[in-house]
Amino acid sequence: MSQRMYDFHGDDQAYIAFLECQLASVQWAGFVDFTAASGEQTVQGTPSTNSIQFVQYTPEGSRARSVKSERGDLPWKRQLDSFISALPTEKTWGEARKKAGIDTPVKNQLAVRLMLGHTNHTTFRSVRKTSTISGAITSQDHDLVWRGYQYAQFIDRCAGDLSFKTSVVSFQNLIFVSYCAVLMQVGVPKEKTNKMMRRYIDRNNDDSTLEGYRRGVVWINRCIAALLANGWGHKSWEIFLLEKRSLAQFARFAAYDARSYEQLVQRLQKANIPLQEDGWTPYCIPCIVQCLAGNNIELWRICHILGYGPLQESPVRSLASGFIDSFKQLAGEPAEQSVGA
Prior knowledge:
Elements: H1 12-24, E1 32-33, E2 42-43, H2 60-70, H3 75-86, H4 93-100, H5 105-115, H6 143-185, H7 190-200, H8 207-229, H9 235-242, H10 247-256, H11 261-268, H12 285-292, H13 299-306, H14 315-332
Antiparallel strand pairs: 1-2
Helix pairs in contact: 3-10, 5-6, 6-7, 6-8, 6-12, 6-13, 8-10, 8-11, 12-13, 12-14
């Protein structure tokens, strides 16, 4: 070996062994500053902040989730967009009523009776007219064909019943949870309210889930209040009758963004719809809640709790003046004998 860094006397094999010992004994002495102005290699015991570079690693999946979050592509947001896009317009309102099974004043009156908690044995009779089949079958047709028509007609009646009942029960749930939200704010203990909700909604729901449901119906009522202010009149409530969603979905909307209902209001824009429609009773949740409470809770308190603002400034006031008595009368009268008439 022609050149040696160390002054070592011995043969090459011995020198190599010496170097290996030196290498094994080396201790870390700090960072090397490659940016020294002199251009010479220096050793520092403590690293300079200027000489450290941080490298951020973002897994591909995390980046995708981040991009989705920035774009609002979240499950609750997709559900809200789906709900808003499915809302009926003024042009499609009649068709939406037919789909819900509540498209005549008689069916409306029966629906409101049920929402008030009153019914009799005629309530769940057919809500769709029985169409005649005598002209559809000729004398040459076999008895089996006639039986087929009879069964198809029965299915048609059942479908009408099902649409009506599903729509009413869905809206009843909104009323019931609205009622529970009011109870919580007027002094009824949380334990008693939750016990009642568990019994009639889902006994397996925990306290936080039930609280989410109450926040969800406040979200709904605040949305209705905003629609009333935008001139949607009696349809402000009916929207939530015609386009049904679960309590859990409304709870998610409220949990992720308490003001997300404003997107719905903006989508529908302003309208000029009266508070009442000839022959129809509006599905006014605050008025129904007051009737359910037996007038033991003032209407202004109900409106305040549910997010309608001061009663003096709410359209509910002018509606309630004539319709509280109408609700009471409706609750006390016998139901129509044939809602399909």
